[in-house]
Amino acid sequence: MPNFTLGDPVFTAACRQFATPFHLYDERGIRQTARRLKAAFGWNPDFREYFAVKALPTPAILRILKDEGCGLDCASETELMLAQACGFSGDGIMFSANDVPPAEFALARRLGATVNLDDLTHVEELKNNGGIPETVCLRYNPGGHFRVGNAIMGDPGDAKYGMTREQLSTALRQLAGYGAKRFGLHAFLSSNTTDPDYYPALARLLFVTGRELMAETGLSLAFVNLSGGIGVPYLPDAPEADIEAIGEGVRRAYEEELTAKDIAGVAIKTELGRYMTAPHGWLVTHITHEKRIYKHYLGLDASACDLLRPAMYGAYHHITVVGKENLPHDEKVDVTGSLCENNDKFAVDRMLPHAEIGDILVIHDTGAHGLSMGYNYNGKLRCKEVLFREDNSFALIRRAETPSDYFATLDVDPAWAGLRRESPDGDIAE
Fold it and tell me: Within this chain, do residues 406 and 302 fall inside the same structural domain, yes or no?
């Protein structure tokens, strides 16, 4: 949760300064999480977190994480461009993508990024578009089910990502022939788990596989990238991930599978997104409409364009009616946006205190995969982003979209001339 509460003057000041809807992020909370993660893996001197840009691709946030020693995990040309613009380069960028256009490999290589190959065919693609570096990473898909104890944590066999075990060996032999000397291993086998055994089990799998591949190919294992997967408690009473216990579990696996086998110097990497920023963001909105038919609906000035997860996945986000936190939650409502799409709901049959038009609502834990997953259905425009700084000031770090943003790609159509007029918000489509 952010380091301020709903009743704080800090929050009420934000609501006065910025018209809803807006995403509000807490700088102090993001920095604290980055430091806690680094400390949990401090036993590995070359540990580094590569923040998943897809989670929150906003320069102000990326610069905060850079300041905390993080790199960036990029998955597209535009994310690579964003990384470069924010001062990241070289081993500060991990490029992990699938169905990669050749030009994106070339850009990643120009930036000096570590390239994570998703498919066997990508060896030749990389060779022909930027060349093979001395260190290259491969994404592993072990297939079947990934279990931790008796629990199935993921279904890699149904995922489109990564190579089979045999393909890893083939790819590394090809890479060695093209001059590669070291390799990394990467896998993403579970999403949004707070189970402390997930990362250690994944690490052990990759350590053993890496050891085998070293013997088969003669290449050195440079690093193991545990990717993402560590989650956050979206439900108020759900347990948090114990990052210290997770780090310790990975350390034990490291010592047993690498150190005890006389393998040293293997760096640990992570590519967390949700864990780093989700708890440190709120979507602030207010009730604009109330409707009672067969159900009771509260309509907001925000929509799925600002936060898609509930509409797309049925994902739970806790909702607070500001100023009424301690009142009885005795009214069953659907909390909706204004899209002409029936799944545009932030909550279904949610028990909330009595709320009225004008009340401010906070939708919690929107600091990852919030605005970044937004879209423009119905021509709706995505909202602004605001940062609560460590010095207790606010900064607008992304303005709200305007009609000119929405119409910008129509400059190839005759309708463009008719759209070049003043919009209701005073924006000029140029």
Answer: yes
User: What is the count of structural domains for the chain?
Assistant: 2
Within 10 Å of residue 124's Cβ, how many Cβ atoms?
A: 12
Domain CATH code at residue 215: 3.20.20.10
**Cα–Cα distances in Å, from 358 out to 287, 322, 355, 388, 409?**
5, 11, 9, 23, 35
pLDDT in tens, the chain (430 residues): 444 565 667 667 788 899 999 999 999 999 999 999 999 999 999 999 999 999 999 999 999 999 999 999 999 999 999 999 999 999 999 999 888 999 999 999 999 999 999 999 999 999 999 999 999 999 998 875 555 554 544 566 556 789 999 999 999 999 999 999 999 999 987 778 888 989 999 999 999 999 999 999 999 999 999 999 999 999 988 999 999 999 999 999 999 999 999 999 999 999 999 999 999 999 999 999 999 999 999 999 999 999 999 999 999 999 999 889 889 999 999 999 999 999 999 999 999 999 999 999 999 999 999 999 999 999 999 999 999 999 989 999 999 999 999 999 999 999 988 887 645 544 443 3
What does pTM read for this prediction? 0.93
| 97 and 77 Cβ atoms separated by less than 8 Å | no
Q: Domain residues for 228?
A: 89-272
- Amino acid of residue 229: G
| Helices assigned H by DSSP within 198-316 | 198-217, 243-257, 274-277, 309-313
67 to 60, 61, 87: CA distances (angstroms): 11, 10, 11
Q: Do residues 298 and 404 both lie within one domain? A: yes
Q: Is 342 exposed, middle or buried (CB count within 10 Å of its CB: 0-12, 13-18, 19+)?
A: exposed
Residue 264 and residue 285 in one domain: no
